Structures are given as structure tokens and as C-alpha cells.
Amino acid sequence: MSTAATPFVHEQFDDIEQQRGAAQLGMWIFLATEVLFFGGLFLAYTVYRSLYPQTFAAASHHTEVILGGANTAILLFSSTLMAFAVRAAELRNCKQLVRLLLGTALLGVVFMCVKGFEYHKDFVEHLVPGSHFEWHEANRSHAEIFFWLYFAMTGLHAIHVIVGIFVLLTLAVLARLGKFTAGHHTPVEVAGLYWHFVDIVWIFLFPLMYLAGHR
Amino acid sequence: MMETTTHSPSVYWKTCAALMALLALTWGIGYVNMGPFNLVVALAISISKALLVALFFMHIKGSSRLLHLAATAGVIWLLILFTFTLGDYFSRNFLQPTSNHKVPPEQFHGAP
Fold first, then answer.
1. How far is A71 from chain B (nearest CA, A)?
2. A105 CA to centre of own chain
């Protein structure tokens, strides 16, 4: 009989450390595929911005830089809370873990509310590409490409934030039941990696979308 | 004594403070006209922020070489994607067809 046998170790692993290492590696490989998933859109942005730099700068002026900047701060702070959540799980502090997970999820919700408010404003100002798109400056179709990329990239990011919020809420419920404070906290750790990745994507989206050219 | 793989609280607070300071810096230079350097500086700051998050929040600092490899792999493939595609886009005008090699318009449009 193995001495390392605990109720958390699945049969294909020797011990909890090996299982944890496998989970982390799996998450990092998934994140590498996510880098390329977003990478395609970042590449499209790079190509079109290099072709139409003036129009991209002009179109960028129509985004809400205050809200975008505030949202960056919100996500950076939520990432900090997530890092503390992983630490709380490792130190087996159940109460603090639940609070930090809920806090991180709440900041995610605040981010989405701000983003939703921005989308509404863009919609009212006819900045959504399509038949209702209105552009009173030069190069309408180039501006439309900017907004196409703006909605595709921030939209794809928003979907990731929403998924993250549900993951965090699920973890908070399980943490409340004491699932991660009895010697097995890998799910919290791995979800943390995902949340930090989503934060990194926004770190690049903020200057590219809101501060193209200069204001 | 429990062994921890996470960092101490002060590391997380310092990382958070550095990230917020860099955000303020990006925001600030967004209002200064530096020509093409606006983009260069903004990207340099974004890369620094991403590194801070990866090193300290995602614990790349202090993790195994295998995880370093997996984390770098995504970035390397991204660079390959960018290098080859941009190499194509930026070199398209390098070879201008000379008048001798031009296809006559009627032939080009498939007219008899």
C-alpha cells in the first residue's frame, strides 16, 4: 500500500504533488492555446492599424478612456485578490478563502457592468459596425474595421471574464464546504492562473483600444 | 511546519502597487504626443505589467522548468505567427512588376 494515498489523489497519480504538477502543466498548455486564440485578433489589429494609423487613432478617440482605465484598475486589483485567495487556500484559511473568491468574482461583475455601460453608449452613438454604423470623419470603412476589432476583442475578453466569474462562484461554494482547505487546493490555484491570464489580455487591450495614437 | 509555494503578502502588495503605477503611467503618456513612440512605450509598459503578473501572481518565479517551458511556448508561437504574417504584409510592395511582365488587361479579365 502506498503511504501517500489520500482521498484527493486520482488513481493515475503517484501522489498529490504529481497530480498538482499535471494540473498546472495542463492549465499552462491551455493558456498557450488561449494566447494564440487572442493572438489571431491581435495580429489582425496590428495589420489594419499599420495600414490605417490615422483612422485608428481617430476611432480610438470615440472610446471611453476613463471607463477603460477604471476597468483596468478593477481587473488588476481583482488579480491581487485572487493571488491572496490562492495563498489563503494554501494556508487552509477557509473563511478568508471564501471572502477573497467572492471579492474577486464581485470585481469581475463590476468590470462587466462598466463594460456593459460602455457597450450601451457605443450602441447609442452608432459605433457598432453594420447598417447602423455612423461615421462623420474620413475613411468610414477603416473606422468600421477598428470598431469591428474593438467589439470582437473586448467581446471575446468579456466572455472569458463571465466564464471566470462562474468558475470563481463555484469555487467559493465548494470552498465554503471546506473542499480546498483540507490539503488539496489545486482547483483554486489553476482557476487563479486562468483569471490572471484574462487580466493580462486586458493589460494589452487597454492601450491598444483606448489610447491608439494619443488623445 | 507547512511548506508554502505562494509568496508573502508583501510581495503581492508590491506587485499590485507596481501594476497600478504602470497603469497610471500608460494612461498619462496616452495624452502626450510622442509620435510613433506612443505605441512603443505603451507596449513596453504592457509587457512589463504582463511579466509582473506572470512572475508573481502566476508564480512563474519559483516554479518548475517544465512550467517555464509551457508558458514560453505560447509566446514563441505567437511571435512566429506575427513574424511570418507581418513579413508577408510588409514585403508585398518590394517586387513591383515591370511593364514587360504586365498581363494585358483584356487577358487579365479573361476576354477572348
1. 11
2. 11
**pLDDT digits 0-9 by tens, A159-194:** 999 999 999 999 999 999 999 988 889 999 999 999
pTM of the model: 0.90
Distance CA A179, CA A173 (A): 9
B97 min Cα distance to partner chain A (Å)? 22
* CB-based contact A209:B46 (threshold 8 Å): no
The shortest CB-CB distance from A25 to any of B6, B46, B70 is to B70
The Cα-based distances of B25 to A70, A97, A150, A198, B38 in angstroms read 14, 32, 23, 21, 12
Residue of B nearest to A205 (CA): B46
Rounded CA-CA distance A180/A191 in Å is: 13
**Lookup: cell for A205:** 487591450
User: Are A76 and B89 in contact (CB < 8 Å)?
Assistant: no
Three-class DSSP category at A9: coil
